[in-house]
Amino acid sequence: MSEYYRERLGAKRLERVYAIAPPRVRQYLDAEIGHVLEKIVPGTIVLELGCGCGRVLEPLARSARRVCGIDTSLESLLCGRSALAHHANCELIQMDAARLGFRDGAFDCTICIQNGISAFRVDVRELMRESIRVTRAGGLVLFSSYSEAFWEHRLEWFERQAEEGLIGSIDRGKTRDGTIVCTDGFTSTTVGARQFEDLAGALGVAARVYEIDSSSIFCEITVGTRS
Fold it and tell me: Which of 29, 83, 136, 204 is spaced 20 to 30 Å from 142 by Cα?
């Protein structure tokens, strides 16, 4: 599915996905960014996994000392570099989130929000393990996925995307229980609170799992804290 984002939803098409978001979805998007910003203090070095065109990096760059975004889509990264050119403290790199090319403890905070943990279609345990590895002791790792309470709003958003030809038509027979399936093979899943807890437990780390805005489930890990 990562190839789908790289080939079908890169750059301008990805920007369009967010441009057509209904008001409640925009609230969700803003709430997630606002929550991350609450964790950022001056001097923080932040890594975002799956940065796309830099939509999340832009507000983070105004608060953090340095921000780095990675993505597999070169088209989206080039778009992001242009949009973020006025931020000297922002760097974008083409890289696989499950095989990060950074040294241990390179960042104060690593984020993978807005359901990246599902969208990347990589081994989620390796994704979490790598995120922890590149974050310093005492630093934060933040993952998020959709809340069950947000299902109707999320489905409406995906229906708009399908109407614009950004993704395939919604397969009504297969779309249910938090999973959206399209006729072109695109599938959007989620990671629930219990799954986040199990993932962290399998890695031997303590995680705080909580809901915000009745739209997002966050998994917050303080690196170095054992379960």
Answer: 83
As a three-state string, the secondary structure of 194-206 is HHHHHHHHHCCEC
Residue length, the chain?
227
3-state SS assignment for residue 168: coil
Contact 31, 53 (CB under 8 A): no
Domain assignment present for residue 160? The answer is no
27 is a domain residue: yes
225: Cβ contacts below 8 Å, ≥ 6 apart: 205, 206
Task: Give the CATH number, domain containing residue 14.
Answer: 3.40.50.150
In a domain, 182, yes or no: no
Per-residue pLDDT band at 10 (split at 50, 70, 90):
low
Tell me if 43 is assigned to some domain. Answer: yes
Mean pLDDT of 79-97: 95
For 93-104, the pLDDT digits (tens) are: 999 999 999 999
Using only the alpha carbons of the chain, give its radius of gyration.
17
Q: Which of 4-18, 39-53, 203-217 has the lowest mean pLDDT?
A: 4-18
pLDDT, tens digit, for every residue of 22-32?
999 999 999 99
Sign of CA dihedral 201, 207, 109, 58: positive
pLDDT in tens, 107-152: 999 999 999 999 888 999 999 999 999 999 999 999 999 999 999 9
Q: Are strands 208-212 and 216-222 parallel, antiparallel or unpaired?
A: antiparallel
Which domain range does residue 210 map to? 2-149+192-222
Q: C-alpha angle 196/198/200, rounded to 5°?
A: 70
